TrEMBL record:
<protein>
    <submittedName>
        <fullName>SIS domain-containing protein</fullName>
    </submittedName>
</protein>
<feature type="domain" description="SIS">
    <location>
        <begin position="32"/>
        <end position="172"/>
    </location>
</feature>
<dbReference type="InterPro" id="IPR035466">
    <property type="entry name" value="GlmS/AgaS_SIS"/>
</dbReference>
<feature type="domain" description="SIS">
    <location>
        <begin position="196"/>
        <end position="336"/>
    </location>
</feature>
<dbReference type="InterPro" id="IPR046348">
    <property type="entry name" value="SIS_dom_sf"/>
</dbReference>
<keyword id="KW-0677">Repeat</keyword>
<dbReference type="InterPro" id="IPR035490">
    <property type="entry name" value="GlmS/FrlB_SIS"/>
</dbReference>
<dbReference type="Pfam" id="PF01380">
    <property type="entry name" value="SIS"/>
</dbReference>
<dbReference type="InterPro" id="IPR001347">
    <property type="entry name" value="SIS_dom"/>
</dbReference>
Length: 346
């Protein structure tokens, strides 16, 4: 457990990457407002980790900016070639590289259907930036490990700025405080992370659950465990989990529960923890304060960020768990089998 992976190094770079990204993008909130004038809905176009970031953006815009926000089905454009009326829509394509053809082609299709377009990418000068009406280029720097870490959290930052530009009732000063909060997460003792890793060794599956703003974290944490640890991890809203799939959690399939330390979804997450542990299922908490920690077998604390910013800090322990578990299982977290940094969809 002493070897340092590239993934671990890039996890540690997130506070700096976030500071650079916020310095670059916050002054552009006015440009976003200008472009979006006359639009009322937002359509997110993404895949993989970027799609999970889009889930965060969707909750953020609907809860705080009063805009209907939905996730696109790129095959409507690239496979079916359907014509859809997108007048009054702001289409936001998210791609770490800016070179994924399916995402670029879908944003081009959205423009042809009448949408105004935004590209969110870490790839300055990429194809996505060339076709978007407005490009929000993150400042993550080069990311070499295949599992996205700093490119993911800087995408969250870009979407938080997008929300501010679209009139969200949120405090930009709170957003400025996120890098320091991530510094705090990285400085915390890793006893809780290590204990969860040891409990996951030998497990073939896990359910990762959260709701609201934290749902994006549940999806991304599950994706990381699948990508780097080959764990059959499912990311589910706790509302969906309670409607049947809760039967999959048992003594061999633990529940990893993520929640902000306060907010409207915390109480339900605590109730879910109590329910699964009552039938002998291990439950491990990321965030959720003392309430969730008290209902779970193991817990990793996170800073007291407002609920709308909690996904930034919640994902970091999940990244650390993934990186450590991969190495504990004898896998290379930097280069999972069958994956690359740019995925093209046939």
């Amino acid at each position: 457990m002493t070897t340092t992976s590239t993934m671990r190094s890039e996890i540690a770079e997130q506070p700096t990457a976030l500071r650079r990204t916020l310095d670059s993008l916050l002054p552009r909130a006015g440009e976003i407002a200008d472009l979006a004038r006359g639009t009322s809905q937002v359509l997110f176009i993404a895949r993989g980790s970027s799609d999970n970031a889009a889930v965060y953006g969707s909750y953020l815009l609907q809860a705080h900016a009063g805009r209907l926000a939905t996730l696109a089905s790129p095959s409507i454009a690239t496979t079916y070639g359907a014509k859809v009326d997108l007048n009054g829509v702001l289409a936001v394509a998210i791609s770490q590289s800016g070179r994924t053809e399916e995402i670029v082609d879908t944003l081009r299709w959205a423009a042809d259907c009448g949408a105004r377009t935004v590209g969110v990418t870490n790839g300055a000068g990429s194809a996505l930036t060339e076709i978007a009406d407005l490009s929000l280029v993150t400042e993550a720097g080069s990311e070499f490990a295949v599992p996205a870490t700093k490119t993911y959290t800087t995408q969250l930052a870009a979407l938080a700025v997008l929300a501010l530009g679209l009139g969200a009732d949120l405090d930009a000063g709170e957003l400025r405080g996120v890098p320091a909060a991530i510094d705090d997460v990285l400085a915390m003792p890793e006893d809780g992370v290590d204990a969860i890793v040891e409990r996951l060794v030998g497990c073939h599956g896990a359910v990762v659950s959260g709701r609201g703003m934290a749902f994006s974290t549940a999806l991304e944490a599950a994706l990381k465990l699948k990508e780097a640890c080959y764990l059959h991890a499912m990311g589910l809203s706790y509302a969906d989990l309670l409607h049947g799939p809760i039967a999959v959690v048992d003594a061999e399939t633990p529940a990893i529960l993520v929640a902000a330390n306060s907010g409207p979804t915390l109480e339900g997450t605590v109730r879910l923890a109590e329910r699964v542990t009552s039938v002998g299922t291990p439950a491990y908490a990321i965030g959720g304060g003392s309430a969730l920690a008290g209902a779970c077998d193991l817990a990793v604390a996170t800073p007291d960020l407002p609920e709308w910013l909690a996904p930034f800090s919640l994902i970091v322990p999940a990244q650390l768990i993934t990186e450590k578990l991969a190495r504990r299982l004898g896998y290379d977290p930097d280069a999972p089998r069958g994956l690359g940094k740019v995925t093209q969809t046939a």
